[in-house]
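Question (not urgent): is this output format expected?
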Amino acid sequence: MFETELKFQVPPGQRAALQRAVATASAVTTRLQAVYADTPDRQLAAAGLALRLRKEGRVWVQTLKGRGDGLMQRLEHEVALPPQRGVPVLDAKRHAGTPLGQQLLALLAGGAPLQPVYRTDIRRLHRRVRHAGALVELACDRGHILAGERRLAVDEIEFELIRGPRAALIDLAQRWSGRFDLWWDCRSKSEQGYRLALGLLKVPALPAEPSALTPAMDPAQAFAHSLRRALQQLLPLAAEIASDRCPDSSQAEPEPLHQLRVALRRLRTMLRVFAAWAPDAQAARALQRDWGAPFAILGLARDADVMARTLAPALAAAGAPPVVAAAPRPGESPGDVVRAAAFTALLLRTLALCDAPPASASAPAADVSLKQAARVVMRPLWRRVRRDAADFATAGVAAQHRARKRAKQLRYALEALQPLLRHKAGERLLRALRRALEPLGELQDLAVADAALRSQVMVESRACLADLAARRQRALRQADRALQRLRAKSLVWR
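Got this back:
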């Protein structure tokens, strides 16, 4: 079966108020002591499985969890054990006869033993509430994940849908997250535990999964699929940045921030380009606009990172004076942005739009094929990109930057629609787009460096400005050549 839940981290300043809100007369406190097991070579973790034995008060429960959708659903099979003395033996056969259980038994068929990897010790304050036709359990968890000498504090709240519509769960989570400044954390305790056991403080950002669109989908289904795919890439990155409490963004890892910006741009592209396919086109366009504020703030942090790590050292080697990027204003570091209630509200609005029924007659008709709908929305964007390419060499800086943004939109939209394109022609087009975006990105970074250097108004900057101008001219020529090759390609559907 699936469990459907949303989990949020609790800011320290809201802990007492949240506890009081959950601790009504019907609330119960239960101690949860669990041991998670895996094979010595971590076969279960590699397969996306988590196997635990947990004492819930006085009852022992064995649970097997599988991969979910990365948003709010995960496969789960639980077995409550009969009363017994001592600690029960973990037995994989308890899950036999279920799809998850058969997967587990197949992994263990080679004889690899199960062994404890980490454990959790949690005190859960929980109660059930009714909201908008749904029954939801609130579970406020405090305690620790422990792996040898390592420990990680847990302070979070889960909203689990017992029965009723998923929209009610999302709405309830929106209300509580706004009230208590909660931030959405898609990482499970099992994921956190494995990382703790392995000593992994940071994990590499994963690229977006390839599009799984099929021509059999209607436009509304394609919109929901593309939006979920963008959220699935975005959420783990946001959680990584939100959990990093370092106030100095220059000391943070740069790659998660860069990938978060990519994920946000992909998400905003889905909302902009495919808005006509949404259950509520007006809501999709409004959401795209509202995502612009955090995207812009994170862009300033990204520019500062590029300056500090890449451009400033190159300029210094050319004799430039030190170029110091402006420090983020209070509340505008990447961690502050993604922990903010406004960011979580946008995430939950996006999730709600994935599941929303059509709100008006503007929703896409089911009898319009996905390929027909794709041609309609992609034709004007493709024309704009080709027109930008034709005039790129003589355009101003602002127009060149706009051309880069449109090329990125085209790339992410085409990646979402790639299964609808002719295989080889689609690959060639996307390859040409990616090659054009490299010098376009360099050109934009150099424009940021030029503006920063000019703002210092130092005599010794003059030679470096000339050097910077020469580098920009080289990047401009490379970008123009790549865009002309892109302009010669065709948008060919299957």
